[in-house]
Fold each of these.
Amino acid sequence: MKVTAAEIAKYMQILEKTPDRMTAASDKLTVAQLQGRPGSDEWSINDILAHLRACMDVWGKDIRTMLTEDNPRWRHLSPRTWLRKTNYAQLPFHESLATFVQERQELLELLRNLAIDDWSRSAMVKQGDKERQQTVFSRVRQMAMHEEGHWAQIEAILNMAELEGNV
C-alpha cells in the first residue's frame, strides 16, 4: 500500500496536538482532579497519560526499529504489559507530562524528516500464533487513533468537572 502525504499529515496533526491538549486540560484541573478517578473502574487523567506514555514507548520503539533494520521481526508487546513495568502511573502528573511532551517532540522530529518511502518500511509482528505486517505508517496511524479515543475520556472528565463547578 502506497501512503500519501495527505494521510501522513492527517495523523501527524493528531500526534502534534496531543501534548498541547494534555497541557490545556491539566491547566484547568487541580492535582487531585488529575489523579482522581471518575468511577471505581475508570481511569484518571494521570492514568491515561501513563498509558499514553507506555504506548509511545512501545510503538515508538517499533517505529525506530523499522527505520533502522530491514524487515525486522519481533513478538508483540502490549503497552499495558509495558506500563506495569514502569512507574508512570505513580509519577506526579506534571513531571510525567513534561517527559511525554519531550519524548513526543523527539518522535515528531524523527517522523517529520522521513522520506515518503520510509513510511512504508515494515516489520513482522507475532502475536499468539499469528504474524502481521506493521509499517511505520500503520504504527503512527494506530498511535494517533488510539490517542483520539482516550481524548474522549479526558473530555468526559473535564465536562464532569465543569458541571460540578470545579473548573
Amino acid sequence: MKIELEDFHEDIIGKAMRGLGVGKSEMAMRTGSERSDIEAILSGGVNESLICLMADELNLDKDKLLRSARKEWCPALIKVKALKQFNLPFGGMHVNAYLVWDEFTRKAWIFDTGPAADPINEFIEMKNLEIDAIFLTHTHHDHIACLDDLKQKTRNPPVFVHKLEALVNCNSITEGFKHSCDSLSLEAVHTHGHSIGGTTFLLQRKNENIAFVGDAIFAGSMGGGMISYKGALRTNREKIMTLPEEVILCPGHGPISTIEQEKKNNPFFPEH
C-alpha cells in the first residue's frame, strides 16, 4: 500500500516560517509580494517564482521545494523483511507504528503504538510474535494513544522512553541507551526539537540499519519545531543526516525513506 507524503510545499514553508518567527506580512515585505499571495502559497497554491523567493528567505532548498510543489517526488517503495509499518488513522491524519522482529526466534519490538492496538495485536498473533519491548520516540498523544491497551494485549512488555518525557510504569532512558534481543540491537539518540525528549532509535540487524526517527524527520520534510525549530534542525543535521546513505528512515508520519533520498529531496537540508 502506497502511503502519501505527510507534507507538501505549503506545510514545509509554514513550518519554516513559524520556526523562524516570520509572519505573513513580514514575508510579503521581504519578497515584494502581497500578504494575500503568501496566504495563497500557505493554502497550497503554486507560484514558482514566489516559492523560490520564500525558500531563499527561509534557508530552504528551492529546487527541492519546487519538486514538492509540483508533487514530482515521493520515496521509492522500500520493502524490508521482518518489518511492518502500521499507518493508522487519527483524527484527520495518519500516524505510524512499527514492528520489527527476529525471523527465527519470533521475538519482536514495537516502535510507538499509534492510536489503535487491534491492528498491531492481530498482526502479532498472526505472525506468532513475542513482544520483547516497546520503544517510544516521543509521547505526543497520537503516538502513544493505545499504549496501555497494547501493553495489556502483549503481556506487559517493558516500555522505554526518554527521561524528559517520563511516563508512569515506563523505563526512563537517555542518549546512549542500548538494548538487544537475539539478532536485534539498538542505540538511542536524543533528537529533540519537535519534542523535548524526542528519541531516534538506531537499529542494527545483520547488515541492515534502520532509524526509527519519530517526528524528527519525515520523507521530504520534518516535524514542526514545537520545542525548538533551530534545535530540531541542528540535531537532525548532526545525528540523523550524518548517518550512512543506505540507512532506512521510519518516520512517525508518511512513507518510509532513506538518508540518500532525504539528502536529494528534503528542502530543509539545502547543504546536500
